[in-house]
Every structure is written in C-alpha cells, then in structure tokens.
Amino acid sequence: MPTGVAIRDVREQLFDAADRILLRDGPSGLTSRAVTAEAGVAKGVLHKHFEDFDGFLADFVLDRVERMDAQAAALRDAAGTGDVVDNVAGALAAVFGSVAVAIVALVTFRDELRARLRRTWPAGVPVLTEAAIMIGRYLGAERELGRIAAGADEESLGAMLVGTGHLLFADRTGPAPAPEAVRRAVAAVLGGALPR
C-alpha cells in the first residue's frame, strides 16, 4: 500500500484479518506479517497503531470480548421466554461457533499475551470468563423469575456450562457438535437447578 493513503478503521481491518487467520490457520499462523498481508496493508501499519505484536493481540482479544456485550444483553433479554436449556445451548453455540475457541488457543499459546492481558483482565481466559459471566447473569435472571431453583448457584453453573461448551467445541478442525449434543450437555449440567 502506498504511503500517505489514509486507511479507514485500520484497527478493525487488522482485527478482522486476525479473525480470519485464527479460524483458518490457528494461533500458530497468526503473525504480524500474516495479519498485514491478510488485511492488505503494509507491515508498518500494524506497528504504527500498536506498541508491538503482543500489544496488537491483547487489544484484539479485548475487542472480541467487548463484542460479547450485545450477545449478553440479548441473552438477558431472553429471560422468561422460551426454554432455559434451549436459550443456554444457543448462547454456547454462538460463543463457541465464533472465533472464541481460536482465541482461547491463542491465549494459551502465547505467554507474553497472557502476561499483557493480566494487566487489565486479572483472572481466567477473557473470552471464557466473559461467557461464564454472561450465562451466570442470565441464569440469575431466570432464578428471579422462578425458572431456575431458588438455591441455584448461577455463577458456578455459568462456569460449568462454559467449561462443558469448551470441551464440546474445542476441536476447531473437526465438525461442530450437533445442536442436540449441546442441548443434552446443558440439560445435564442444569438438571438439578431446573424446577420439576
């Protein structure tokens, strides 16, 4: 790309390129050269906007976590409607059907990235932690409506459901689990928390 040509939304362009690379090639394929080539920009563009490549990756991960806000709001708004198990199974499929599984692999693959994320994200893997919070809050709303047992620990259930979802979706190179398999797993985790 010639110098002096303005690039609109360069961060988003680079982040979208990172999404495509992660989904196609996994964390080992995600390099600064691969990102700039995929985005169609000069390599210097990345370093102009980010301190270094790990800084880019940290911002990328946090941006993708922020994108979950709309999904979290939609799930909370679903409280009191539909079937609880179906709502949670759909939320898990949406989280893990996205770039989230690849981001988990990326975070565990790169020590420096984990160290940078700890500066602003004190515990857990950001995408998984945010998903557990999202599902826990939804279950809390359902508990208030009487659709989840009064004594249910929604935070623990959210974490267990995300862990279960991660196990189901962890192999990004194989086929995604069937929706019925996800639903069965959710029903098993929530079994004791659902009113009879």
From TrEMBL:
- Residue intervals annotated as DNA-binding region are 31-50
HTH tetR-type domain: residues covered:
8-68
Asked whether the keyword Transmembrane helix is assigned, the reply is yes
Taxonomically, the superkingdom here is Bacteria
Taking the record's annotation, the residue ranges forming a coiled coil are: none
Report any Pfam family annotated for this entry. TetR_N
Which Gene3D superfamilies would you find in this protein's record? Tetracycline Repressor, domain 2
Q: Which UniProt keywords apply?
A: DNA-binding, Membrane, Transcription, Transcription regulation, Transmembrane, Transmembrane helix
Question: Which parts pass through the membrane?
Answer: 88-109
Q: Does the keyword Secreted apply?
A: no
What this protein is called in its record is: TetR/AcrR family transcriptional regulator
